[in-house]
């Protein structure tokens, strides 16, 4: 019998498992497909919310913790596994100007470095930009990582810890008796534990609904493309009109992403591929002609305002959730894992639990 069963082996699920294991807990990790195979693998790996001033303070605090702790976390993963998640501080250039004052006020309030660039300064910061670019917001401390490499490292580190992993194990139900969790079912197979954590990404909303918890979590498809460039062609992460460009260390350039409310359908479309390619060329004309090496989609756990639900079921003892990270699963992952582990282990929580409770206005 385990101390805790975690349903979902994305970034948040794995990091929570590691937090619990580090505290001495025996953990079972159940994943409906493969470790990190959905939004954890598919995302861009920007260690910051896009347009971070649009989010409530509860998201800013989670993001701050992730930004502070990722360097040491990734160093540890690389040391244990030999896999480099390719963390790099590329900085983020935001070309949109209609929320400039809001962005500046947010940065001042939260003591975050943000500069308003004008004239030739945007092009000096990123020479690949369209020569007509005269204004930008610059966040030099924003870093990135390479999602597939992070997922590979997480998969490797699980094997070295006291964590039992079951892949291709879609949970069919949570077992409850006398308002206390007993475990979960995977088809005809039962797993027993005193604590169960639901962190199943885009599927969390379905699981929680079965447990009489209504949330705003729903799948949101994001399509992305990867261009084959050369190292140094692009240096900065650039964001404009909801589209972003992310330069990788090997010269490849990731362009994303769409926001599509199509349920659990993940079909790729030529229209989306062309729109992403044209958006990239508008931001950086020198990308024209670069071949599209890959085109893929992932399902994010969408929520109304991006604040995840982290806490215990109000009526069922031992049933917890860590869900609804939307587009920010990477940057929020470390803090959400720490918060969830604190609550499960009955430690003093990292942040105010009321801000992330199921009863909070999300």
Write the layout of secondary structure elements.
Layout: E1 2-7, H1 11-22, E2 27-30, H2 39-42, H3 57-81, E3 92-94, H4 100-110, E4 115-118, H5 121-125, E5 135-139, H6 147-158, E6 163-166, E7 173-177, E8 180-186, E9 189-198, H7 204-210, E10 218-228, E11 237-240, E12 243-247, E13 252-256, H8 270-283, E14 292-302, E15 309-312, E16 319-323, H9 329-344
Parallel strand pairs: 1-2, 1-9, 2-6, 3-11, 9-16
Antiparallel strand pairs: 3-5, 4-5, 7-8, 8-9, 10-13, 10-14, 11-12, 12-13, 15-16
Salient structural properties:
single chain, 362 residues, alpha/beta, FAD/NAD(P)-binding domain, D-Amino Acid Oxidase, Chain A, domain 2, 8-stranded mixed β-sheet, 26% strand, globular
Question: Can you put this structure into words, describing what you see?
Answer:
It is built from 9 helices and 16 strands. It is an alpha/beta fold. Helix 3 (57-81) crosses helix 9. The strands form 2 sheets. Strands 1, 2, 6, 7, 8, 9, 15 and 16 form an 8-stranded mixed sheet that branches. An 8-stranded mixed sheet has the order 4-5-3-11-12-13-10-14, sandwiched between helices. The protein has 2 domains: 2-81 and 147-216 and 306-356, FAD/NAD(P)-binding domain, CATH 3.50.50.60; 92-140 and 218-302, D-Amino Acid Oxidase, Chain A, domain 2 (2-Layer Sandwich), CATH 3.30.9.10. The two termini are 35 Å apart. It has helices at residues 11-22, 39-42, 57-81, 100-110, 121-125, 147-158, 204-210, 270-283, 329-344, and strands at 2-7, 27-30, 92-94, 115-118, 135-139, 163-166, 173-177, 180-186, 189-198, 218-228, 237-240, 243-247, 252-256, 292-302, 309-312, 319-323.
């Amino acid at each position: 019998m385990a101390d805790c069963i975690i349903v979902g082996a994305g970034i948040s699920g794995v990091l929570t498992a590691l937090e619990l294991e580090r505290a001495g807990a025996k953990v079972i990790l159940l994943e409906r497909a493969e470790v990190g195979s959905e939004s954890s693998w598919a995302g861009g790996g920007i260690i910051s919310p896009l347009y971070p001033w649009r989010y409530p303070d509860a998201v800013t605090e989670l993001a701050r913790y992730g930004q502070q702790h990722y360097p040491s976390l990734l160093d540890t993963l690389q040391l244990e596994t030999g896999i480099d998640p390719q963390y790099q501080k590329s900085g983020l250039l935001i070309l949109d100007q209609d929320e400039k004052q809001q962005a500046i006020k947010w940065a001042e309030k939260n003591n975050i470095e943000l500069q308003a660039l004008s004239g030739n300064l945007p092009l000096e910061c990123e020479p690949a930009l369209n020569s007509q670019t005269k204004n930008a917001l610059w966040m030099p401390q924003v870093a990135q990582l390479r999602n597939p490499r992070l997922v590979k490292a997480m998969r490797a580190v699980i094997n070295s810890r006291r964590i039992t992993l079951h892949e291709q194990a879609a949970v069919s139900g949570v077992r409850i008796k006398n308002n206390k969790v007993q475990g979960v079912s995977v088809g005809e197979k039962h797993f027993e534990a005193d604590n169960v954590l639901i962190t199943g990404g885009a599927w969390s909303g379905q699981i929680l609904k079965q447990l009489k918890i209504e949330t705003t979590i729903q799948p949101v498809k994001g399509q992305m493309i990867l261009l084959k460039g050369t190292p140094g062609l692009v240096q900065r992460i650039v964001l404009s009109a909801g589209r972003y460009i992310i330069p990788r260390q090997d010269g490849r350039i990731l362009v994303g992403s769409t926001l599509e409310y199509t349920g659990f359908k993940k079909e790729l479309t030529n229209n989306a591929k062309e729109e992403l390619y044209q958006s990239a060329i508008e931001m950086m004309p020198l990308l024209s002609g670069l071949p599209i090496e890959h085109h893929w989609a992932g399902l994010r756990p969408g929520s109304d305002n991006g604040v995840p639900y982290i806490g215990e079921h109000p009526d069922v003892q031992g049933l917890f959730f860590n869900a609804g990270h939307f587009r920010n699963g990477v940057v929020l992952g470390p803090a959400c894992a720490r918060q969830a582990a604190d609550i499960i282990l009955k430690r003093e929580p990292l942040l105010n639990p009321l801000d992330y409770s199921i009863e909070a206005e999300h």
